[in-house]
């Protein structure tokens, strides 16, 4: 079984479109999105339309998705999220399509089968960060545990079991390239794929919306 594993799109449809075309070349049996469609950039509706074109897709709820769902009914929360993360929350709330509404409604808290467990942050918390040096205080029950949230690609082996983070499609935090992972379940092989994506449209959107300068700075990051 080949799995295309990806996470943290954050409204970056330009990057997602390229990533999905690259994933298709590996002929995956399943796609697993580890969460965080909401937050930061502005093309969530377009990104969801791209995801809905896939067969055999599992979509898990991320911490920003959870916050967005709650903010729809809580105006004060919506305002605070815009101040902290940028204006994409209110823009999405004001333009939410029926297709996108159903996408957020149907997000899973986790996904499990005989080979893997999949979460956004960790089995403990939706917003827990698991890095290469993090003390793991949960049991690895399957050969693979898939986690997102950090925006950093990771392969971590503990007692012949693996924690895999595919990095981020839409807002990498260690590079200015997007990333995803291809996981061969039976052969226990994992490949991280880095790819370039156009950033002009994102930059223009941030400037037009007079949004946080952080959203521009993160696009310039390069690997140390």
Question: How would you briefly describe this protein structure?
Answer:
Helix content is 31%, strand content 21%.
> Which regions are unreliable across 5 or more consecutive residues at pLDDT < 50?
none
Global outline = globular
Q: Which strand order does the major sheet show?
A: 3-2-1-9-10
Beta percentage is: 15-25%
Count of helical regions: 8
Assign the CATH architecture: 4-Layer Sandwich
Largest sheet: 5 strands, mixed
What is the helix/strand order? Answer: EHEHEHHHHEEEEEEEHH
Taking the alpha carbons of the first and last residues, their distance comes to: 34 Å
Q: Mean pLDDT, as a whole number?
A: 95
Structural class: alpha/beta
Q: Considering DSSP H and I runs of 4 or more, what fraction of the residues is helical?
A: 25-40%
CATH superfamily, by name, is Metallo-dependent phosphatases
The domain count comes to 1
* Rg of Cα set: 17 Å
CATH topology: Purple Acid Phosphatase, chain A, domain 2
Per DSSP E runs of 2 or more residues, the count of β-strands stands at 10
Overview of this protein structure:
The protein has a single domain (2-220), classed as Purple Acid Phosphatase, chain A, domain 2. It is 31% helix and 21% strand. It has eight helices and ten strands. The protein has helices spanning 13-24, 44-51, 63-71, 75-85, 88-95, 98-105, 200-208, 214-217, and strands at residues 2-6, 30-33, 57-59, 111-112, 116-118, 144-146, 153-158, 161-166, 178-184, 189-195. The chain has a five-stranded mixed β-sheet with strand order 3-2-1-9-10. Strand 1, helix 1 (13-24) and strand 2 (30-33) form a beta-alpha-beta unit. It is globular, with a radius of gyration of 17 Å. The model has no long low-confidence stretch (mean pLDDT 95).
């Amino acid at each position: 079984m080949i799995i295309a594993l990806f996470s943290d799109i954050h409204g970056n449809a330009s990057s997602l479109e390229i990533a999905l075309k690259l994933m298709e070349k590996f002929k995956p049996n399943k796609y697993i999105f580890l969460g965080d469609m909401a937050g930061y950039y502005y093309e969530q509706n377009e990104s969801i339309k791209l995801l809905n074109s896939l067969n055999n897709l599992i979509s898990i709820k991320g911490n920003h998705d959870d916050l967005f769902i709650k903010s729809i009914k809580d105006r004060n929360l919506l305002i605070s999220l815009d101040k902290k993360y940028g204006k994409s929350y209110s823009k999405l709330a004001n333009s939410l399509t029926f297709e996108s509404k159903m996408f957020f409604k149907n997000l899973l808290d986790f996904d499990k089968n005989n080979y893997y467990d999949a979460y956004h942050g960790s089995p403990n918390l939706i917003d827990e960060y698991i890095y290469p040096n993090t003390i793991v205080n949960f049991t690895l029950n399957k050969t693979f545990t898939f986690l997102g949230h950090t925006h950093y690609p990771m392969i971590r082996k503990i007692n012949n079991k693996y924690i895999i983070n595919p990095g981020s499609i839409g807002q990498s935090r260690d590079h200015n390239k997007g990333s995803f992972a291809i996981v061969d379940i039976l052969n226990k092989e994992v490949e991280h794929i880095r790819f370039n994506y156009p950033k002009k449209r994102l930059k223009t959107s941030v400037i037009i919306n007079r949004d946080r300068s952080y959203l521009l700075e993160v696009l310039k990051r390069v690997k140390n």
